[in-house]
Amino acid sequence: MDDLGLRLKQARESRGVALRTIATKTKISVAALEALERNDFSRLPGGIFGRAFVRAYALEIGLDPETTVSDFQVHLDQSEREAAERNQIRVDISPDDREFLARQQRAVRWLRVVAIVVAIATVTLLAWQAKSLWKRFGSRAGSASASVQPSATPVLDPAAEAPAPASAPAVAEAPTTVPASAQAALVVEFALTADCWVVASVDGGQSMSQLLKAGDSRRFEASRDVFLDVGNAGAIQLTINGTTARPLGPAGSHVQKTIRTDNVSTFLP
Predict the structure, then answer these.
(1) What is the pLDDT of residues 33-85, one digit of tens each?
(2) Domain ranges of the chain
(3) What is 4-94's CATH topology?
(4) In 10 A of CB 113, how many CB atoms?
(5) What is the number of other CB atoms lying within 10 angstroms of the CB of residue 226?
(6) What residues does 23 pair with on adjacent strands?
């Protein structure tokens, strides 16, 4: 297994970036960054927070964050196995690192609150739309049923030899095809290769605001445009009208794109 810490240090020094500069930008203590470069993972927090340290460091020195985090996880697993065999006790994290973890935990809690609020708003909007549709089309259905009620039996004229037979009213058959104007002119599909927050709207109306997981996929049909706001452009694999599109941006970047019927070619290879 290669020396991950040495590789990270060499990449940083080759770009002429000081540890203090990275610490200032990422809010990670210099002690934790030095521990990472010497493979002393006991100085880093565990779980997603340790990976968050490594991802932030990799972005600052120009390395691919996902590959670097994957290598870090392999080294961390190996170190933990060796530490367990030697019955070593992990060193407590520094106060600076604890503060960073506290900020991360607060951010996660706020993200959950936002997700709950969005879910409630979505359910409320759908209920309101369903109520409006019922008022609109339910009243029409009631009027239509009333219009086809059988008429009263006609009164015959005694002087008439025989009443003329009433002809059955012609019932117009409802069209079974969808009007051309309602057919989608733009079909946008995407799949997620990593967890990512995505906001999407179709023809100016919000359709989705959700934290999607790796492996999730979505499909949108529009007559005019589809707007996408993604927190990790590199996690989106985009298809437009059945054709694989170019990446929306590099991994880890936040981008906002509007795909319209008149600019589709700019997104295709």
Answers:
(1) 898 888 887 777 767 777 888 899 889 998 898 998 888 888 877 777 776 77
(2) 4-94, 182-267
(3) 434 Repressor (Amino-terminal Domain) (1.10.260)
(4) 10
(5) 21
(6) none
